[in-house]
Design a protein that fits this description.
By secondary structure, this protein is an alpha+beta fold. It has 17 helices and 41 strands. Helix 2 (about 45-55) packs across helix 3 (about 65-75).
């Protein structure tokens, strides 16, 4: 077939066509759909819904109307974009958990805070709320411009008069093309008070208002769901720049039940958080064992308010569970503020003061136009009254002219010619009723005319004086405040690093115990009483098969604990965040408190409070490496940890101490060797470094403890089968780092290898704990002071035939105000014990095993 000769092919540049079309689409979405106007705070669809309702006479004093009728009128007259978008806007304006001051009074199922959708529009009914009438007030007095609708059959307002600043009061959210807005709702009283402050400064002091003055009045967003905003930094940033992030936290309380359990009651959620999804998330975290200790989760919410009940196990720390809930769920959420609105149909990011000033400009325009409208109407009426009063003075002649005229037009013409009446006045005269001729009616006309003259004078004064105009705005907006204002729902809390209120937590002495498999607990020190050496101890912790106690330390509730792991990382938490448990309880998995990776375990703990007077952290590894790094490099420990030291292959970090550049360092190995050197021998290196050699080890040996000389006057060593001794510190001469050290303990079959070393004095007590959780506490003064080349005495009676060995030792602090923190040595391999209770000095070997290697320092190993 031959092509039709009338066909025309028009070539176009596809790139330019696409660009033009997309820009047109983007501008339409930005200006005519997704973003609110800075003057009335409404998007076009919201404005059209409200205007349709006022046209339907669907006010708060009238019965509710079917939502389908409202949607139909809006779509047919003004918004040809489908009923779902219109009904969605109607529903949103009626939801009390979305709008701080709902603009629509809904009747029926309009959804829920659980995310349930509204019923179909054929089932629901709506009418304007009382406060929405303030948005539409005086719309018939030429206060705003009107434009043709989509088919030129109707007129619709380009903006509403808005007698209150709806953009800030109810907020707005919208996603356009290449931009979005997210303005939080605010308290009506505060926002109006800020407007009044701007007016007062202009009128009384003839000056502009600063943003700081406004921010003193507008404390922050006021969400319809209440909750608490954490800190003012995000609020100030948003108000000053138009962008910011707010941390919003649920409102909760903790109660102790009669059965001894604790429950958390959640009564308010952050803005826009779905309650049902929050509960599902909590249940999921419990099922995945990311949160431990929740035994019951129940939603008791009803029409009277929200109430989520979370019951906890007796042995868990409610503060820690609460911390985990805030960290892992939307109980604490971030609200991103983007204060973007249309100004003269152009999108702009505005600060708080600019929004208020643009609204005030709108009100000046609205009140000016309304005043002019009222003036025109008053002048028109006064003009008519002048004619009627003049006609009454010559009423006999007026009646004669009207009676003698053939028709109304002739009568009007004669009156205008004879007395100089205008056409409007002449028309009013011929329309005048006979009752107007009475004296009473004449008095009424005269009174009305005098009142109009007074009103005209006032209106002209307002138009001629901007201060009077601002006074009118002030008066009207204060009436709105007094009529609809209410108290704040959202509180603004202090921005503190720690989630819990530490003032409510006593700074008591506590014992922190952790197992090899990573179970940790906090116990009051009162649970353990001092015993004589050689006793069997008391049950301190129940362990599961294959687990044993690995760490034991004394501290206080409010201390920050820095957890150093075998992989060379450091984490920081408060002592009270560790769940408190009974003496025999196993505890909670430490991975619930700090994000340990696979194969990572805690090997040393340092109190952050101890670091205030110290200069360095001194670290030792299992293979004898040491490192000295300034404390300042560990001040800001992130939640996911911080690299504390770089380790060689197969090496582990075992000890960390705070030092002041004046200490001697002592290191002991499981085979009974000990070295002493000054910390200054170890040069200072950065946080991400390997350090240098501190002690040279035999192939089968490893470091089990590291202490600093200020911790005591004698060295206490303990073996795995419960033997130990003290040796005076002055028996260990200082040498250069990098040597093999001298003998500090004679290892024999009945003692087993060393499991730990501490520096002590007579005033201290120590705790020993076995791998089965049995703990014994004894005075240091009861432990014999003997020479280096000895095996000591029995400190604890352990059943070696059952595989029981001493797992660790810890020093007990003298008083609750002692800020030192004693950490726990790493457990060594076990062995058999066939000996008696004590190994006396007579059984010592006479061979000279001391001073085996003075050492001259070793090679330095840095990261590079």
């Amino acid at each position: 077939m031959e092509p039709n000769k009338t066909d025309k092919v028009q070539e176009v540049d596809l790139k330019k066509t696409m660009e033009t079309s997309y820009i047109d689409y983007a501008m339409s979405v930005i200006a005519s759909r997704a973003l609110p106007d800075v003057r009335d705070g409404l998007k076009p669809v919201q404005r059209r819904v409200l205007y349709s309702m006022i046209e339907l006479n669907n006010g708060p004093d009238k019965p509710h109307r079917k939502s389908a009728r409202i949607v139909g009128d809006t779509m047919g007259k003004y918004h040809p974009h489908g009923d779902s978008s219109i009904y969605g806007a109607l529903v949103y304006m009626a939801q009390k958990w979305n709008e701080r001051y709902p603009l629509v009074d809904g009747h029926g199922n309009f959804g829920s805070v659980d995310g349930d959708g509204a019923a179909a529009m054929r089932y629901t009914e709506a009418r304007l709320s009382r406060i929405s009438m303030e948005l539409l007030a005086d719309i018939g007095k030429d206060t705003v411009d009107f434009m043709p609708n989509f088919d030129d059959t109707e007129k619709e307002p380009t903006v509403l008069p808005a007698r209150f600043p709806n953009l800030l009061v109810n907020g707005a959210t919208g996603i356009a093309v290449g931009m979005a807005t997210n303005i939080p709702p605010h308290n009506l009283r505060e926002v109006i008070d800020a407007i009044v402050k701007i007016i007062d400064n202009r009128v009384e002091e003839m000056r502009d208002t600063t943003i700081d003055e406004v921010m003193q009045i507008v404390k922050g967003p006021d969400f319809p769901t209440g909750a608490t905003i954490i800190g003012r930094r995000g609020i100030e940033e948003a108000y000053r720049t138009g962008r910011g992030k707010l941390r919003v936290r649920a409102e909760y309380s903790m109660e102790t039940l009669p059965n001894g359990k604790t429950r958390i009651l959640i009564t308010e959620l952050p803005y826009l958080v779905n309650k049902a999804r929050l509960i599902e998330k909590i249940a999921s975290l419990v099922k995945e064992k990311r949160i431990d200790g929740i035994t019951l989760l129940h939603d008791e919410s009803n029409r009277e308010g929200m109430r989520i009940h979370i019951e906890l196990r007796r042995d868990v720390n409610a503060n820690v569970v609460l911390n985990q809930l805030l960290r892992h769920t939307q109980m604490q959420d971030t609200y991103g503020v983007i204060m973007l609105a249309l100004v003269d149909n152009q999108p702009r990011v505005l600060n708080l003061l600019q929004m208020l000033e643009f609204y005030l400009q709108h009100q000046e325009d609205v009140v000016t136009r309304r005043t002019q409208y009222d003036l025109n109407k008053a002048q028109e009426r006064a003009h008519i009254l002048e004619g009627l009063l003049k006609a009454l003075d010559v009423i006999d002649e007026v009646i004669r002219i009207i009676r003698s005229s053939e028709n109304v037009a002739a009568a009007k013409a004669e009156l205008m010619s004879a007395f100089g009446f205008s056409d409007v006045q002449a028309q009013a005269i011929v329309d005048m009723r006979l009752r107007t001729l009475t004296g009473l009616e004449r008095d009424k006309l005269l009174a009305e005319y005098q009142e109009l003259e007074k009103k005209i004078t006032e209106l002209k004064a307002i138009l001629g004086d901007k201060n009077l105009l601002l006074g009118v705005i002030r008066k009207e907006i204060l009436e709105v405040r007094d009529k609809y204002g209410d108290d704040r729902r959202t509180r603004i809390g202090a921005d503190v690093t720690d989630i819990e209120d530490e003032d409510m937590i006593p700074d008591d002495d506590v014992v922190i115990t952790m197992t090899h498999l990573g179970y940790i607990k906090r116990t009051t020190s009162d649970n353990f009483k001092s015993q004589n050496r050689g006793g069997k101890g008391i049950r301190g912790m129940s362990t599961i098969d294959g687990d044993y106690i690995d760490d034991l330390l004394m501290t206080t509730n409010l201390h920050n604990l820095m957890f150093f792991t075998n992989l060379g990382k450091v984490y920081k938490i408060k002592a009270y965040e560790i769940p408190e448990a009974g003496r025999t309880a196993r505890g909670t998995a430490v991975i619930n408190l700090i994000p340990l990776s696979k194969g990572e375990k805690v090997t040393a703990i340092v109190s952050a409070e101890q670091l205030t007077d110290e200069k360095y952290l001194f670290m030792a590894t299992r293979l004898g490496m040491v490192k000295r790094t300034p404390v300042s490099e560990y001040e800001n420990v992130r939640k996911n940890g911080l690299q504390a030291i770089v380790l060689r292959e197969n090496d582990e970090l075992i000890e960390v101490k705070a030092t002041n550049d004046q200490q001697d360092i002592l290191m002991a190995t499981k085979n009974g060797m000990c070295i002493r050197f000054h910390e200054a021998d170890v040069r200072v290196t950065g946080r991400v470094s390997m350090g240098v050699i501190g002690m040279r080890l035999n192939p089968d040996d490893e470091v089990v403890g590291m202490q600093i000389s200020s911790q005591g006057d004698s060295i206490l060593v303990v073996s795995e089968y419960g033997y130990g001794k003290r040796t005076m510190l002055n028996e260990f001469k200082a040498q250069n780092r990098g040597g093999k050290g001298v003998l500090c303990y004679r290892i024999v079959e009945k003692t087993g290898c060393l499991i730990g070393m501490k520096l002590v004095d007579d005033s201290r007590e120590i705790m020993l704990i076995t791998n089965e959780g049995v703990i014994i506490q004894m005075p240091v003064s009861e432990i014999s002071v003997i020479g280096r080349n000895t095996s000591g005495v029995r400190l604890m009676n352990v059943d070696t035939s059952s595989g029981v060995v001493v797992a660790g030792i810890a020093k007990v602090r003298e008083s609750g105000n002692d800020s030192s923190l004693e950490d726990m040595a790493v457990d060594a391999d076990g062995g058999e014990n066939n000996g008696s209770d004590d190994i006396s000095d007579d059984e010592e070997e006479n061979g000279d095993l001391s001073d085996s290697d003075d050492g001259d320092g070793g090679d330095d190993f840095d990261k590079n």
